[in-house]
Structure formats: C-alpha cells, structure tokens
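INFO batch 0412 | record 1 of 1 | parsing
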Amino acid sequence: MPSPSKPPASGTPKLTPPALHALLEEVQDALFVTDPDGRVLYMNPAAKTLYGFEDRVDADASTVNLRHHSDETFVFHTLAGVAVADEDRPVVRALRGEQYRDVELVVQRTGDADPRVYVFSGHRIEGDPPLSVLTVRDETDRWRAERRYRVVFEADPAPSVIVRLDDLHIVQANQGMTALTGFDVGELLDRSLTDLEPFRLNTDFGLAVERLRTGAYLHKVRMLVRTVDGSEIQVLLSARAIEVDGRACGLFTYIDVSDLETEQRLHQQTQTELNTSRREHADEKAELAYLAIFDPLTRIPNRRGLDVRLMDEADRAERYGNVFSILLLDLDRFKELNDTHGHDVGDEALRQVARVLQSAARGSDFVGRWGGEEFLVILPESGADAALESATRIRDRIDQADFAGVGHLTTSIGVATFEASDSIDRLFKRADRALYAAKERGRNRIEVAPRDADA
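INFO prediction complete | emitting tokens
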C-alpha cells in the first residue's frame, strides 16, 4: 500500500526577483529592496533618479551597496537641524529590520548646496535571508512653502494664532499675541481658542467658526479676548482658513480696540490700522495668497495648484523621458441640476464628487478642481493604457454613487498623454477635444485623444 503523500513543508516561501519586481512596478515613491548587507536587489526608476544611480545601474542593481552609498554621499539632519547619528540613518534602521513610517529628514548630498526634505519609511520582508525595504518621498516643495509661511507669520506684529479647525486647539502663536494676552507662547500652545474667547459680544461666533471650516472668511468680528489675569480686552477679529502640515487650520488675527471711546473713533482707528497693515505687509500678504492653492468648496487643489503640479510633471517628463497623462472630467448636465435643485445642493454634489475622485485615484495621482463642474486628475508615470484604466474606474465610481439631494450623476472624460517634445498647452487641447467628443457621443463615456492629433 503506498504511503500517504506528505504535505508540503511549512515555512516562509522565497520571493523571486521577478515576482518582487512585478509587485513593486507601480510604486511611485523611490523604493529600494536590499539584502541584510545593504546590497541593492531592486530599485524602481524613482529610486534611481532620487539617488543619482541612472548611469551606474543597468540590469544588475546588486553592484550598489545602499548603506555604503548613503554613508559616502549624504548628510542627514532632523527638521530642527540636529545631526542624525550613524545608527539612526534611515538605511541603517531598515537594515536592522525596523518598521517605521514617514520619518522627515533634511538630506544634503555631498557637494550640493541645496538641501532636500525626504520622508523615509522602512519595512521588512521575512524570508531567507530577510529583505529590507526602504521608500523615500521628496517633500521639499511642501516643506519650503510652509517654512516661508511660518517666517511671515512669526514676523507679523499683529496678534495672531493658528488654530486646528477640528478641535480649535492653538498650534502656533506669535509675539503680538503674547503682548495682547499676557500668555507666553508655550502657555498659548496648551490652550484652545475657546479658552481665550468669552463669546459674550458675539453669540454667533460658533457658527462663524463653522463657516470658516467651509472656506468662508471672518472680517472685523467684534468680541472679547480673555487675558492671563482674567480681564477681558475688546478686539476686532479677522480669520481665514489655511492648511498647515496637511491639516485644516484657521489663521486668527486680532486688533485691540479696547481704548476707543466712541463708535466713530473705533471706525477711524480700525481703518487706519488696516490701511497701515496693508501697506506694511503687502509682500507678506502676496506670499500668503500664493500659498492658498486649495479650492475652498471642495478642499482639493484649485487651478493654480494644478498648474504648479503640471509644470513639475512636464519638467520631469522632459528631463527623464517619462510620460504622464491627464483626465479632464466634466459632470454631465450639471447646469440642469443647479436649476432644478438649487446651488446649495449643487455645491454639496461637487464636494461629494471631489471625495469620490480622491477615493478612486491612486496614491500618486493628483486630483483638483479645474473650475465650475470640471475636474482634473494628473496621473504620473502613466501612459494611455493606464490612464484609460483610471478613467474607467473613476467614471464607474461616479456612475454608481448616490449623491445627496440629487441621486445619480454621470461624467464625461477626455484622456490625453504627455510624451517627449510635448507641451502642456497641446496636452490640454487634446484632452479638451477628447472631452468634447465624449459629450457629443452620448455623455457618461471616455474618449482618448490620439497622440498625433493636431494641437
């Protein structure tokens, strides 16, 4: 009698290089896979670009030792300027098998005067031997923009605080605010906005803050602010929504009007202070306006933010010979929706469409509102086939969604791909023609612009 067959031996299966490459093919961040000694077994195109390996690595990535290269080529500091010890370098931590996410460091390449801000994550793949995975994301542009903003904020003599809109906790305060209230900066950072606002002069302040969350502005709201000794100062409050470290916040600025004797004098003093502030801070206000790149209704990037990202993608495509694609979307018969249900319902539909687009997009994709009922999705490292797949997924998600007060919506999509010797203007003309064709051919459909179409 034949002996029963034995079950396969248990254990962790080995991951072959081809299988590993297939898994990591679509990763958009720089990604390295190394053995325990630091020899590179795999790196994606973004990793080669980030670390300057384009000319050194062909088919055999193992000619590079990532640990040695990192030690010889880069200097690491924290965002506060503290040097990172050798044993705490991202590559070393990954080789030790540490699992960590989103560690922000200032990285400077030897001989390069321009530091960068990279976000590192380390992972481990168990096996024999175990493999280390290091991912790197370049966040230099965001970091520089926020640093410029903070310099302007801290230098402004007008008493100001920055507050998280979800819980009204104070996250930043300038010296003008310490002079107004008597609290030092550390004490203010331990408080919420409600600790400073008695609310007696403006019972609608809570509603005003709620409106601020939707992108509205507060302008010259008369109210009281509580000081360190418990007394109250009469102020005029102005506020606007901003984004700090990826979170929705509000910038609250106060003008002390407690010594004004009459309403006429209050008006004159306020006008004088506002005019003086306008002249003295014209450059700072222009900088703040430049940073306002989000659409207040949908809370996704607006046309200005999209333009910046498009120029970056076009530069990368021209420099490295990459391709990327765009999806130009227009909601079908949206004017009829507004006429039938009103603009409040239409605005809520636009907000929901923005959420659907973000959930349907890949992590590397960039979703924004182009204007009106038009949206734009930028697809890095995506040719025509991948773009059509993304467009189909987005169209189906919108077609299947239930929109509050409306029910069913559809969208028409024009797809165009940016390739070598292309331009953003020609790219948009092709996408716009494809969108027009989708509308003409029945709506709720996708049309892909041919590459050789006349621009």
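INFO post-check: The longest helix spans residues 263-280.
INFO record closed
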